[in-house]
Recover the amino acids of this structure.
């Protein structure tokens, strides 16, 4: 499925859109980490919680758990969310 | 009373400066800031500086450290506002950086238990000279990690991180500094790689004699905030602990509640800050020690009155030096602003080099880097306009 990558993670993927697969958001992130080593830990902590300032959207709806199921036709978008200086 | 040693400084004037410049020694000052890192280069004269940076523009760099065992390898503790914490490594002095394959991270908690998460790596310490490629890291919240492959992979020290007693010393997430509770001042005894010290804000000063498997608090003599119980380890807030390179049985400490010295094998700290001028007090963050004289140390006092402004007392920045192990202190201000300079210098933001005379360096949260090439007698501004400075480390490039 298509995954849209935010600016802070372009140093890992090298491009704005990447293809990755997984039956859950967690599996998708594991696939992204295989393709782009180091990617996962920057967005998911060691307790498998999504980090506070990266938001995950599936087909435009925000999701909060790595266990969120995914279908091959889904569109996933990661968004940077941080305010202040 | 502490031993007093007279220091010898050979040569004078222009001849001495020329000799220093020709010595071939290359001095660097590594500046870690809230928005990236800079490296300042000079020669042994330390008269002019060349800026190299920014590295990691936009990244929060808590600590940038040169490996003294090879004089080339750099480790940077980094995160960004959005992304989780990591460590970067360069083996060519910052031309290329590679991210750790396994950054410091706590063990995954069992199901239904709330595990801890590393917010940022705060402190980096190269291990013993006989342990090449080994490093320690201290984190926020308090945790300690070790790498044996030059910072590529990091393993937690369960004897500390998962120790139920020590977890009570660490307190909760609100128990630390405004930027989060921190483990810092990781020190390796140059005579014995198994002998370690570390400190926690909050959580006291601790010693290990088995490479961090077990730990013992050393807080006797240290004071805590008035009306609190000094026997409660969690109330102790050491800001910066240093071990004398010239006498590894002597440690100095800048604490939330004063300046201290410890001479091993004693386990009782002596509050040497009582001899500071009363109107200045002995509150602050950093502590810098002389590389060859265990009686000489420098501090940068902060205003610790009322609401704890943590700025230079009276808006007049001053470095204070003791030349007799804390028996007395002398104010060093030549070249520094004489008024309206409300600086804050954080615990990692002051350091010294190993040259003779010793060069001293500090960075302010307002983004100024200052240097002295004569042990603090005269100060000059090296850089202005940097982001908030978190750490300043001096070293020599091989």
């Amino acid at each position: 499925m298509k995954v849209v990558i935010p600016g802070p993670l372009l140093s890992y993927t090298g491009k704005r859109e990447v293809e990755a697969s997984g039956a859950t958001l967690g599996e998708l992130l594991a696939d992204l980490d295989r393709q782009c080593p180091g990617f996962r830990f920057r967005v998911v902590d060691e307790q498998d919680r999504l980090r506070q300032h990266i938001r995950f959207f599936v087909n435009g709806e925000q999701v909060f758990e790595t266990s969120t199921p995914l279908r091959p036709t889904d569109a996933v978008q990661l968004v940077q969310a941080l305010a202040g200086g | 009373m502490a031993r007093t040693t007279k220091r010898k400084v050979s040569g004078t004037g222009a001849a001495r400066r020329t000799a220093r410049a020709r010595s071939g020694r290359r001095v660097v000052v590594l500046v870690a800031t809230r928005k990236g890192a800079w490296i300042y280069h000079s020669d042994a004269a330390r008269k002019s500086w060349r800026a190299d940076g920014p590295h990691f523009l936009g990244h929060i760099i808590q600590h940038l450290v040169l490996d003294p065992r090879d004089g080339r390898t750099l480790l940077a503790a980094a995160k960004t506002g959005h992304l989780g914490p990591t460590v970067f490594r360069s083996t060519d002095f910052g031309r290329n950086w590679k991210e750790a394959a396994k950054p410091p991270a706590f063990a995954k908690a069992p199901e239904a238990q709330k595990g801890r998460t590393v917010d940022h790596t705060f402190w980096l310490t190269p291990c013993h000279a006989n342990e090449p490629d080994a490093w320690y890291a201290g984190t926020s919240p308090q945790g300690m990690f070790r790498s044996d492959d030059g910072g590529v992979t990091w393993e937690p020290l369960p004897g500390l991180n998962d120790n139920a007693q020590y977890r009570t010393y660490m307190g909760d997430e609100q128990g630390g500094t405004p930027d989060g509770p921190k483990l810092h001042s990781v020190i390796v005894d140059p005579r014995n790689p198994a002998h370690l010290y570390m400190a926690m804000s909050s959580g006291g000063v601790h010693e290990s004699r088995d490479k961090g498997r077990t730990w013992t608090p050393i807080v006797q003599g240290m004071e805590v905030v008035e009306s609190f119980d000094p026997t409660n380890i969690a109330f102790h807030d050491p800001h910066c602990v240093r071990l004398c390179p010239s006498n590894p049985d002597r440690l100095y400490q800048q604490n939330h509640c004063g300046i201290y010295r410890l001479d091993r094998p004693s386990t009782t700290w002596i509050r040497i800050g009582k001899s500071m001028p009363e109107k200045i007090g002995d509150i602050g963050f950093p502590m810098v020690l002389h590389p060859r004289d265990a009686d000489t140390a420098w501090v940068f006092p902060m205003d610790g009155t009322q609401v704890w402004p943590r700025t230079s007392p009276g808006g007049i920045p001053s470095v204070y030096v003791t030349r007799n192990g804390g028996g007395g202190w002398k104010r060093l201000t030549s070249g520094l602003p004489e008024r309206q300079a409300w600086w804050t210098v954080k615990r990692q933001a002051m350091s010294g080099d190993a040259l003779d005379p010793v060069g001293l360096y500090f960075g302010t949260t307002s983004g100024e880097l200052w240097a002295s090439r004569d042990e603090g007698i005269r100060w000059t501004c090296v850089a202005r306009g940097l982001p908030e400075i978190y750490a300043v480390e001096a070293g020599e490039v091989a």
About this structure: The longest helix of chain A spans residues 25-35.
